[in-house]
Inverse folding.
């Protein structure tokens, strides 16, 4: 109920015998004042001010962050009714005082007249301050049912080319259900997706840095989001582009022309052979493969190489390793062994047979029965809760993070709680019945299996179109213009080998083998079925093989560390591989051939290329040096040669050229 703040004055006037008309005038004054003022909407005016000031952010009073000092608001104002209850009625109404708005804690703390942990959030006398004050003065009306609904948000300009160090003022227009539009530029929130490239002020002014490329500025207001896409041209001439081999090149090169960033040239055959072998098969090309490929004059040899790698079992092993980790094929106990092996085999066989992507996903999500009869059921063994199932499926197969929408409207997307629980309805109908095997259930769908018609997606074709494009084949060496580019594919971006691939590459290069418990001898690290083998391998742990606890690739450690460098230089398992009996170092030491062809073999095996003349000279000089034992006595020639080759293998393994795919 709205209480007129001057009603006590009216009562006092009557008791003191004042004329009735004076008492009536006193009572009518606030009504006339309210008519002169625009009615302030709690939903469309007050909540946006609180959001702009950061009051309902996670670090301040948002309920999602537990709310400072017991004052809780909905995150970013998505639940205005709750906000009104907490603000006006909670704590005996101590936060607001309509009779004297300036004495309200809401305003006094906002301008820091009363000590406030969040500091000053508003300037006294500013437009947001006056808006809150007017709402208090007008009686703190809650207008959820009468306020027009926000239906769209328009940002101008939606797309803009801005020069390096340039600026652009954005204008944001809100459109409501009653047809009214409103300029909300001062109260909207702004955020650039790459702050190194652009920054947006609180008033919507975008300032560009000196990095060319493309950046998006997200604008958020009352649960809706809009985007201004900005192109930042370098302005360099883009000429002599590689040929367009498919749509990937058409899109990438068109963008490079737009922003004036010339691409690096196409890489040489040796670099391409090593790059594509690591990316498709998860292994280094052998010295023999490198020799044949480099000698070939076939103009289509790169395309044929891609087809050969995609047809190999190595492709299935490598991509099954990726998918099973993302699908949480994780071993928590001995009872998981059968399920994990069966699930890994199903994924690998599906990839080897090039099962269409839509069919693979359907078989996984609609799986019924037992693991022994239908291995995809193993996913439901690991991911049991409907909330976890919807979040994993959305992120992995749709590329959408739905976690936030479980509790509130997504702050950066258009997904709402309604979307979240509508999608989770499918997984709420998954039924389970216990079996004789501990920890395993029979899975069934209570209302049948959802049917949908999808376009067949050929996973190998996706890999093929990427790896055969000229964009993929660009050199990793930047030119004078594109060195700062990290998003436009003007050159290949080197990346460190994954833990499993690096371990297999060291084994392949040194001629050693890594043994894994309960697996056949010679099993490669990329063929391991689950995370349990990380516990027995210090190498895999140090280099960041994931545990399969998340559907995010970010679980895999990809950055270099001091621990990794020390492991490669000093770890006993690496030293053991260098001196392995029957390994490459021992074989080369015993070989009577001259040093030159043996050095060539090493460089082909490690880098898929011939050694350069200066490298050849340095290595030959190193191999010819006399060697002594700890007492200073000359070592026997056979032993000296073996130590020399072990040292050479160790030096090559520790180069960036070996450790990185480039």
């Amino acid at each position: 109920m709205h209480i007129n703040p001057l009603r006590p004055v009216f009562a006092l006037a009557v008791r003191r015998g004042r004329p009735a008309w004076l008492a009536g005038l006193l009572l009518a004054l606030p009504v006339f004042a309210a008519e002169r003022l625009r009615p302030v909407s709690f939903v469309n005016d007050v909540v946006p001010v609180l959001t702009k000031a950061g009051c309902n952010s996670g670090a301040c009073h948002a309920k999602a962050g537990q709310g400072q000092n017991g004052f809780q608001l909905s995150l970013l104002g998505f639940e205005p009714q709750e906000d009104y209850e907490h603000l006006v009625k909670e704590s005996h109404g101590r936060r607001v005082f309509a009779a004297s708005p300036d004495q309200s804690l809401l305003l006094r703390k906002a301008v820091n007249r009363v000590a406030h942990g969040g500091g000053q959030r508003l300037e006294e006398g500013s437009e947001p301050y006056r808006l809150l004050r007017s709402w208090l003065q007008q009686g703190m009306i809650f207008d959820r049912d009468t306020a027009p609904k926000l239906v769209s948000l328009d940002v101008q300009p939606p797309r803009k080319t801005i020069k390096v160090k340039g600026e652009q003022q954005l204008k944001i227009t809100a459109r409501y259900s009653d047809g009214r539009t409103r300029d909300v530029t001062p109260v909207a929130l702004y955020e650039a997706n790459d702050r190194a490239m652009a920054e947006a002020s609180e008033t919507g002014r975008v300032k560009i840095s000196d990095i060319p490329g493309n950046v998006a500025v997200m604008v958020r207001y009352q649960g809706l989001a809009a985007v201004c896409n900005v192109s930042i041209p370098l302005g360099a001439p883009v000429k002599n582009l590689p040929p367009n081999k498919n749509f990937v090149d058409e899109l990438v090169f068109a963008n490079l022309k737009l922003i004036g960033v010339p691409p690096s040239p196409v890489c040489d055959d040796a670099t391409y052979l090593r790059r594509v072998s690591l990316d498709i098969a998860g292994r280094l090309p052998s010295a023999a493969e490198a020799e044949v490929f480099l000698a070939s004059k076939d103009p289509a040899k790169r395309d044929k190489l891609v087809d050969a790698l995609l047809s190999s079992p190595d492709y299935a092993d490598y991509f099954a390793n990726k998918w099973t980790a993302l699908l949480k094929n994780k071993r928590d106990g001995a009872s998981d062994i059968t399920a994990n092996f069966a699930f890994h085999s199903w994924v690998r066989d599906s990839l080897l047979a090039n099962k269409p992507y839509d069919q693979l996903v359907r078989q996984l999500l609609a799986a019924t029965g037992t693991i022994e009869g239908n291995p995809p059921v193993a996913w439901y063994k690991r991911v049991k809760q409907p909330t976890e199932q919807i979040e994993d499926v959305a992120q992995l197969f749709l590329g959408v993070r739905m976690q936030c929408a479980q509790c509130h409207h997504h702050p950066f997307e258009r997904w709402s709680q309604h979307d979240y629980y509508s999608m989770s309805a499918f997984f709420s109908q998954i039924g389970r019945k216990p079996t004789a095997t501990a920890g395993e259930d029979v899975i069934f769908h209570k209302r049948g299996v959802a049917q949908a018609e999808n376009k067949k997606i050929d996973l190998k074709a996706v890999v093929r179109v990427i790896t055969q494009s000229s964009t993929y084949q660009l050199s990793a060496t930047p030119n004078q213009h594109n060195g700062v580019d990290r998003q436009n594919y003007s050159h290949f971006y080197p990346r460190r080998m994954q833990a499993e691939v690096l371990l297999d590459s060291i084994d392949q290069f040194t001629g050693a083998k890594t043994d894994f418990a309960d697996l056949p001898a010679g099993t490669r690290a990329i063929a391991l079925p689950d995370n349990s083998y990380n516990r027995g391998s210090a190498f895999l742990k140090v280099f960041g093989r994931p545990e399969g606890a998340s559907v995010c690739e970010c679980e895999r450690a990809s950055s270099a560390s001091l621990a990794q460098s020390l492991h490669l230089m000093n770890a006993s398992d690496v030293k053991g591989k260098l001196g392995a009996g029957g390994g490459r170092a021992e074989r080369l030491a015993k070989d009577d051939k001259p040093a030159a062809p043996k050095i060539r073999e090493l460089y082909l095996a490690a880098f898929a290329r011939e050694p350069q003349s200066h490298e050849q000279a340095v290595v030959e000089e190193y191999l010819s040096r006399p060697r002594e034992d700890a007492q200073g006595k000359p070592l026997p020639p056979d032993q000296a040669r073996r130590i020399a080759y072990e040292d050479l293998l160790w030096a090559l393994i520790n180069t960036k050229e070996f450790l990185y795919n480039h």
